[in-house]
Amino acid sequence: MRVAIIGTGYVGLTTGVALAYLGHQVVGLDVDREKIARLQRGEIPIYEPHLAELLHLARPNITFTTDYAAAIAPAQVVFIAVGTPSLPDGNPDLTYVRQAAQGVGLHLGQEFTVVVNKSTVPIGSGNWVETLIAEALKTRTDAAPVQFAVVSNPEFLREGSALHDTFYPDRVVIGTQEPRALEILHTLYQPILEQSFTPPSFLPRPAEVAAVPLITADVTSAELMKYAANAFLAVKISFINEIAQLAERVGADVTQIARGIGLDKRIGSQFLQAGLGWGGSCFGKDTAALIATARDYGLGMAIVQASRVVNAQQRQWVVEKLRHILKILKGRRVGLLGLAFKPHTDDLRDAPALDIAQQLLERGVGVRVHDPVALARAQREWPKLDVHYCEAVETLAQDCDALVLVTDWPQYRNLPWEDLAKQMRSPLILDGRNFLDRERLRRAGFTYVGLGR
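Request: output the structure for the sequence above.
Response:
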């Protein structure tokens, strides 16, 4: 099928490359000329495991452009996958969605076209985008009628596992009551739904995945489904983090508690890892948007709001634990291991490392930072953050009073801890993810401090 994808960020680029690998003819459209030029050269502007390799395999079926007419007019399916950052009141900024919808309306071809809201948009956006497209169509001089349908097709991708989640999703959700649109999207996703494609060698099909459920719903239900899923996961993380604070007060171990309750099939073990809390572009933005939408309808969403409060407290808790152990923070040196909000990505949006670094700097601490992937991006995006960026962990640890594990990159587990302990002024490690080998660190000479244990 002929597919156009507006927006070449995490969602748009991952979706486009995956669909091209499956054999569809894909055009990636973006107004950022520099980004498009890089993609045309085969360069990936973001860090996502295996995306470069998959783009290489899919190159015969995918092109990139800044030209709306060239991308939209031939397309049978148009995905809107642009950014929707938060406004100060919690509502998403729909500027880019508006621009994309208007561009679609100005350039739709004569063939029936399915316009897919892939961006995370507020409830009611399907109707709004349909109106924007229809209004743009009225300004055209060509008299031929244009037929289209707007569909909600929310994404449930995890950064760092985006390709895996695209090829082997838990479900595919399509929100529409238009039979033609449903039929077209069913055809588009059929290789994924039936798992009939040949997997790339670097992303083998999990043994348990034989088929993928297709969930059909009305547009509004599909839109709310995305927000509800992210809000529930955010609440689950904040719940175990609140339990961690109590566990520490009473002398319990939150990792044992999480294992004990996670084996209950009604609860499940995923998202029960206590630590510094969630960051990234989704949970904070989507919970804020859900609260803002509910407020418009006279609802308070107290549980979702509480999850945001607890999440913010986790970052402050780490700083307070350092102050409690070191007594005086002013003049100390602290090294942060990890800047990205999670491993296997270079995404710094709402990264806990930024809040922790700022709080330490305000208390007179000299802060050093390291990340195996996101270091260069942090220097570009945080130019005013007065920290020392270290290319090597050994440089980070030299004469430090404490190290804080912020991002649970796998390579941090196997650092030469015995050597690092000897280089530090005081070998203290605060494991903000309860990720490291506690006994090995203690044998290496470290004072190990976890969260909730």
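The chain has three domains: 2-217, 226-307, 314-449.
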